[in-house]
């Protein structure tokens, strides 16, 4: 049975993706900040889904999650760095604080780097592993907005992480890509967003399950390659 770990799977796109991959027969590990979660069935997202405590902004939490998963699995086929925050309402590049920039990067950018580092032994244990980094149109060079400062910069940098990891992991046969789900009706996207959560998750499920393994170091939206 193939395995997948999704960070930030408690709600939104992460939760939807978890349910869909469970439906396709994956054993799904749903990352959550809930400290007591390890090993509990994540019933709402599918019978094959299991909660795992994972706060991506904390090194100790990432280390413990990787240690715990290594007691249950010898390989991890798919890692989806989905957890993210969007804390920029009312702020611009003129008034964003160093503290807020740091907090956003801790979750959106440094978290995915450290999660990949910690789970790399398990990813290397799979025949053809995949890493998917949830980025955004706001992380595209032409999508940067001075009114969404820390989020845009954190996703721009996350795209850089994708390129670096894809390069370093090519020899291991591990594919690493960025994905923009589009504007999705979640707590983050809000009720005016154009896409349902299922429509937003579809491109992520495609990258996890269907995309050719040789596709790596690229940026996708709804299964189509887009520019950085
Ligand atoms: N919605 C959109 O329109 C849109 C557009 C482009 C990109 N994206 C990206 O897609 C991803 C998912 O977004 P979404 O719309 O589903 O967001 P969401 O509904 O706000 O859900 C965010 C998820 O991330 C988790 N999370 C936040 N900080 C975390 C941390 N430090 N450690 C672990 N989990 C953490 C949350 O967990 P808690 O429940 O514990 O808070 C929640 O499960 C994000 O990376 C986002 O940037 C979304």
Can you give keywords for this protein?
228 residues; alpha/beta; Rossmann fold; eight-stranded mixed beta sheet; 5 helices; 8 strands; 37% helix; binds NADP nicotinamide-adenine-dinucleotide phosphate
Short précis:
This protein is of the alpha/beta class and 228 residues long. 37% of the residues lie in helices and 15% in strands. α1 packs across α5 (197-209), α2 runs parallel beside α3 (98-124) and α3 runs parallel beside α4 (149-169).
Specify the CATH architecture.
3-Layer(aba) Sandwich
The helix content, as a percent range, equals 25-40%
Q: Detail the poorly predicted runs.
A: none
Question: Total helix count?
Answer: 5
Broad CATH class: Alpha Beta
Strand content: 15-25%
| Largest sheet geometry | 8 strands, mixed
Estimate the mean pLDDT confidence: 97
Number of strands: 8
Description:
- The chain has one domain: NAD(P)-binding Rossmann-like Domain (Rossmann fold, 3-Layer(aba) Sandwich).
- 49% of the residues are buried.
- The model has no long low-confidence stretch (mean pLDDT 97).
- Helix content is 37%, strand content 15%.
- Helix 1 crosses helix 5 and helix 3 runs parallel beside helix 4.
- It has 228 residues and is an alpha/beta fold.
- The protein contains five helices and eight strands, in the order βαββαβαβαβαββ.
- It has an eight-stranded mixed beta sheet with strand order 3-2-1-4-5-6-7-8, with helices on both faces.
- It is globular.
- It starts with a strand and ends with a strand.
- NADP nicotinamide-adenine-dinucleotide phosphate binds next to helix 1.
């Amino acid at each position: 049975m193939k395995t997948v770990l999704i960070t930030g799977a408690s709600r939104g796109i992460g939760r939807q993706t978890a349910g869909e991959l469970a439906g396709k027969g994956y054993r799904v590990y749903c990352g959550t900040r809930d400290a007591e979660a390890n090993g509990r069935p994540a019933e709402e997202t599918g019978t094959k889904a299991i909660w795992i405590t994972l706060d991506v902004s904390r090194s100790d939490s990432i280390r413990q999650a990787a240690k715990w998963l290594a007691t249950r699995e010898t390989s991890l086929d798919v890692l989806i760095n989905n957890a993210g925050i969007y804390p920029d309402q009312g702020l611009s590049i003129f008034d964003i604080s160093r503290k807020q920039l740091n907090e956003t990067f801790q979750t959106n950018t440094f978290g995915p780097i450290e999660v990949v580092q910690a789970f790399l032994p398990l990813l290397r244990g799979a025949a053809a592993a995949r890493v998917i980094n949830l980025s955004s149109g706001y992380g595209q060079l032409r999508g940067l907005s001075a009114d969404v400062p820390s989020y845009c910069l954190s996703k721009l940098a996350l795209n850089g992480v994708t390129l670096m990891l894809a390069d370093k992991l090519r020899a291991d046969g591990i594919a690493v890509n960025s994905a923009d789900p589009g504007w999705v009706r979640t707590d983050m996207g809000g009720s005016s967003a154009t896409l349902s959560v299922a429509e937003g998750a579809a491109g992520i499920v495609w990258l996890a399950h269907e995309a050719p393994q040789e596709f790596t170091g690229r940026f996708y939206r709804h299964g189509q390659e887009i520019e950085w």
